[in-house]
Amino acid sequence: MPKGVLNRRLSGVVLHPTSLPGPQYHGSFGAEAYNWLNWLQLAGFGVWQTLPLCPVADGSPYNSFSAFSGNPDFVDIGQLKALGFPEYKKDVASRLNQRAALTQAHLWLQEHPQHPIAAEFQAFLAQTDWLADASLFTVIKQQYSEHWLQWPAPLRNRDKAAIEAFQRQHANPIQLENFIQFLFHRQWLDLKRYANERNILVFGDLPIFVSGDSADVWAHRDLFKLHEDGTPEVVAGVPPDYFSATGQRWGNPIYHWPAHTGSGFSWWKQRLKHNLELYDAVRIDHFRGFVAYWEIPATEPTAINGHWVPSPGDELFKALLAETSELPLIAEDLGIITDDVIALRKRYGLPGMKILQFAFDSDGANPYLPHNHTRDTVIYTGTHDNNTTVGWYKHLPQPTRDRIHEYFSQPAEAMPWPLIKSALASPARWAMMPFQDLLELDEQHRMNTPGTTEGNWRWRFQWSQVDGGLADKMKALNHLYAR
Q: Which amino acids are annotated catalytic?
């Protein structure tokens, strides 16, 4: 991992690999991912930001069956032939066919144990400490599609004899899952190496909480506030505010922090180590939860009757820092943030976040306005949860538009360029833009609309949408603003 990554004045683009073009169900780690990195280099960008790369339950990368596993859909079938596997000749545009290609490759490797990839695979198995639980969970989930709380009691409760019997009976499917994770990590680390060779940092995303229906909770029930039967005592969310009278009930189980402190935060150390192998820097979602989190009784249908509970964030980050020479972490500190959250962030030298789309709904003291930015910040035009800048501007009330026009002295350029240039000019260490903004796309192309379940996480671009002069334009702007 390159050192001092957060001290550089850089710009970058937010694009989840699902949004890449290509022949598979969604974007993968194939040729188009390398084309994408080539384009970033031509355009003078130094950072590629992704969303979490984990397997998804409902399309959302923030709702995963495993905090450690990679999404099998990202594995590029086209690279298998170059590794010596037989060519898969069917169309891989469907998940079913992609899965068939991976199964074919695994069967072939079992028949050719002297192939060099077999030794690599065995080394991966030996050094990957989270894999056994994750693959076992996945295969049990394939047999019993319900939440793990609905599994037969011996499997639900990890009865040793039942687990060993299941492992014997399903040895091949479990090994297939191990093989898929091997290919995922091999291909991703090759892609990351290619990025770093072109002076592009890879910026990942770490949700603070994990899904209740995950290998993490099933295998480590002592680390979460659960009843004896495994059901949650309390769940996570945020309190009522200006935007929601009932708050947000996310439903994730809450950490049993005494168990984490008692283990020296070993699970968190493992998680950080894993993420810093995958990325050069990591955004921590909902950073304020490391100071205090909103705890809601699991029986409550909304977040109204929750309350704030302190977290041992200082102890945690002290323990994490002891494991590595630096913490290349960016704190997602959006919303109403208290002084103790700011103090924790600054104590460990973590930049916070600012969003330009939030800057124009009040007066000149708005902390998101460019003249109020500080260096210990990553500035965004918008994030994956925001509308595109063109779509945002289109739906603004006229008084807010007037304030924007006055701030930018009646910009001659149409949106999104005033916000893009403002982000690049900001004193913030990094300036990040969703690719939709660079392509001047409207709200039909946004990635996610929070609070909705339909139509999210599906956006993909095509190279025909990328103007031939855009890379040169961005390279000139990055040079102009010393990015």
A: 285, 332, 385
Cα–Cα distances in angstroms (integers) from residue 469 to residues 13, 46, 80, 192, 481, in the given order: 17, 19, 34, 26, 19
Phi, then psi, of 256 in degrees rounded to 5: -90, 85
* Residue 171 C-alpha from the chain's centroid: 31
- 88 touches 77 (CB < 8 A): yes
Q: State CA 44 to chain mean position distance.
A: 23
* Model pLDDT for residues 17-60, shown as the tens digit of each residue: 999 999 999 999 999 999 999 999 999 999 999 999 999 988 89
Q: What percent of the chain has pLDDT over 70?
A: 99
- Euclidean distance between CA atoms 342 and 338, whole angstroms: 7
Give the C-alpha separation, 193 to 71, whole Å.
Answer: 19
d(CA 474, CA 483): 10
Rounded Cα–Cα distance for residues 156 and 150 (Å): 7
SS3 122: helix
148-173 pLDDT, tens per residue? Answer: 999 999 999 999 999 999 999 999 99
Q: How far is CA 35 from CA 30, 83, 449, in A?
A: 9, 20, 28
Residues 6+ apart with CB under 8 A from 439: 445, 461, 465, 466, 470
pTM over 0.85: yes
- Characterize 91-130 residue by residue with b for buried, 16 or more Cβ atoms within 10 angstroms of its Cβ, and e for exposed: ebeeeebbbebbbbbbeebeeeeeeebeeebeebbeebeb
